[in-house]
Structure formats: C-alpha cells, structure tokens
Amino acid sequence: MGFRYNGNAFDRHFLPRLTTQEIKTMPKEDVLIVLPVGAIEQHGPHMPVYTDTLLGEALLAEAFKYLPEDAPIWLLPSINYGKSTEHAESPGTFTLSAQTLMMVLQDISASVASSGFKKLLLFNTHGGNADLLGMMAREIRIATGLAVYRLDPGSVHYSDSFTDDEEKASGIHAGDVETSLVMAVCPEWVHPELALREMPRFPQSTSFSFRSKSFAWVMKDISLSGIAGDATKASPERGEAMLNKAGPLLAEALLEIATFDMESLKE
C-alpha cells in the first residue's frame, strides 16, 4: 500500500494536511472537494473486506498523478464505512444504516460549506451506496447550496477492454476486475487459491433486468460464495493495466467536474 499518503494526491492535494489558517485564507470559489465513500464488507473467500475503500483510494491516487499541480481539487479522507446491508449476514461486513450514512454525509457536507467551499464530489466505490448517494446529492444541494456531483469510477469504463461480455453482465462483486485490482495494489491481502467463479443468472429482459434495478436483492439471493463474477481469471498484471488506464480517464473527469458551472445549464 505504498500509494497511501504518498504521491500527488497526498503530497499536494490532501486537504487535511493544511492548517486551519491555510484553509481559511485559500481561494475557494473554484475549488472542488472530493469525498470518497467506500465500504467494509465481504468480498468472497479470497478478498479483503476493505476492498471497496482500498480501491477508491488507489484509483484516486492514480488519477491525481495526472492532475496539474495547481488544479483546484482537494481530497478528503475516505468514509470507510458504507451502506452494506445487502452483505450484513456475512462476518466482516461492517455497515452503516441508510439513515446513519445520510446523516454522516449531511454533517460532512455542512462542514464543507461552512469552511467556504462551493463544490463537492461524492466519489463512490460501492454499488450499495449508489442510490443513496444519488438521492443525497440533491438533498445536500438543497440544504447547503453546494454544487454536488457524484462519480463512480466504473462510469469511465476503464475495465471494459479487459473483460469479456459475461463478466461485464454479471461480474458485479469480487470478480475478475476487483480481484485483479487488489492483486495489483495490495497482493498480500489476496488469497488467489481460494478464488471462485460464480455467475448469477440475471434476467435479460429489456423491461425486467438487473441493470434496470427491476427487483430488490441481497447477496445471498444471487450468490452462494459471496462472489458475482469470475475471480479465477484475475491477475496482478491486468490489475496494473486497469489502474494505468483508469488514472488519466478519472483525472479528465475530475477536471471536467471542477470546471463545470451550474449556471451554464440555463439559457
């Protein structure tokens, strides 16, 4: 985990390294504050429960390598715990309730606003957080006046060229992509000899499908092992290649968000 507290993300863009006086006097009008939101939850028999938060930190560390040194983008520490109630029956899952995570987000965003900042990005690396963060982004906007954005790293499609169609359709948890990434970032935390392949049989109808969120599920509904995907295909080399591809794509997304003006939406 050599990336942690090293590199551009932490040497130049980690907000808590500043003093209160430095934060008070810094220009804030165009600053984007990045708040990573992860999770601590089961990731099958072969992967650490810290996977989602770990990968959020690693992906951001990679992205910040490609930002200009003077980019007005500052990183907050991760919220390590997410809403992982779909995995709550598995040992090692440490979840917040939806209500608690909502309150944590409200309180941190209020502090961002009271410190004088205008823009907040929720950087999410856990699928179980996605709907709640989408809803909370608007609530935070209403309550604080902040311009609030959300970015899930998968939205830049950094892993698409490394996975087959089956993995794209069903590999949503602890499969090829996540296992390869953790192998690259923290190989001593992975037990590849325990990796499994388990592909949920999701409905393929256009009007009733997993991707369109047509039904509620918890992990035991779709998997016996806690895996949805093929972890046996994973390799550290492909994980490193995915990180290398993700870095500039995420940096571009961060810069685009940082320069976006909400007023531009109106005629």
Describe the structure.
The protein is α/β, with parallel strands linked by helices and 267 residues long. It has one domain: 3-Layer(aba) Sandwich (Rossmann fold). The chain is 37% helix and 9% strand. The protein is built from nine helices and six strands. The strands form two sheets. The protein has a four-stranded parallel sheet, with helices on both faces. A two-stranded antiparallel ribbon has the order 5-6. β3, α5 (130-144) and β4 form a beta-alpha-beta unit. α3 packs across α9 and α7 packs across α9 (236-259). The longest helix has 24 residues, at 236-259. It is globular. The model has no long low-confidence stretch (mean pLDDT 95). GO terms for molecular function: hydrolase activity, acting on carbon-nitrogen (but not peptide) bonds, in linear amides; metal ion binding. Belongs to the creatininase superfamily.
Task: Please render the helix and strand layout as text.
Blueprint: H1 8-11, H2 20-25, E1 32-37, H3 51-64, E2 73-75, H4 98-114, E3 119-124, H5 130-144, E4 147-151, H6 165-170, H7 176-185, E5 197-198, H8 219-222, E6 229-230, H9 236-259
Parallel strand pairs: 1-2, 1-3, 3-4
Antiparallel strand pairs: 5-6
Helix pairs in contact: 3-7, 3-9, 4-5, 7-9
